[in-house]
């Protein structure tokens, strides 16, 4: 059958994790249409997604372990160790679905119901206070509940893309406007906060 980008994107789990090598689920769907991406690149989608994409695109090549078993990772969520958070907003800036809330120099937190477990917030954290933990309730990856979650997440990712294209950091009150500060001042403030956090929590980051 002839598939469109929207049809393919609707099949994807909408984690926006970029493990496929693309900037999100929509670009991966476009690459699939262009025959410029393998159908097994979406790790969170697992074997059921591979089968669905194969049927829609007329391809094959499921992702397997060395023993031939198909991979499907368990559901996970990001968690911030709030006692160690310095409020640098770096994680807020990279979350593809705006599932993190907070303000500069204030504790941030994860909205668990909206987190996709993409792990993109982990590398930017200067004090390593974010970790992935197993989801409290295993999210069904291929049922009606997962399709509903994916549809909501897809809409949130699209809304964030529109917001960024318009040059806005946030539509809500949880982020402060940093336009009045120059880069040197911000860098100095973050560095000082990191030093304070390490003094308070010496075990929060390896030396």
List the helices and strands and how they pair.
Blueprint: H1 5-11, H2 25-33, H3 46-57, E1 76-80, H4 90-94, E2 100-101, E3 109-110, E4 130-134, H5 144-165, H6 183-200
Helix pairs in contact: 1-2
Molecular structure report:
The protein folds into 2 domains: 5-57, Electron transport complex subunit B, putative Fe-S cluster (3-methyladenine DNA Glycosylase II, Chain A, domain 3); 76-137 and 170-200, Alpha-Beta Plaits, CATH 3.30.70.20. It is built from 6 helices and 4 strands; from the N terminus they run H-H-H-E-H-E-E-E-H-H. It has helices at 5-11, 25-33, 46-57, 90-94, 144-165, 183-200; strands spanning 76-80, 100-101, 109-110, 130-134. The longest helix has 22 residues, at 144-165. The chain is elongated.
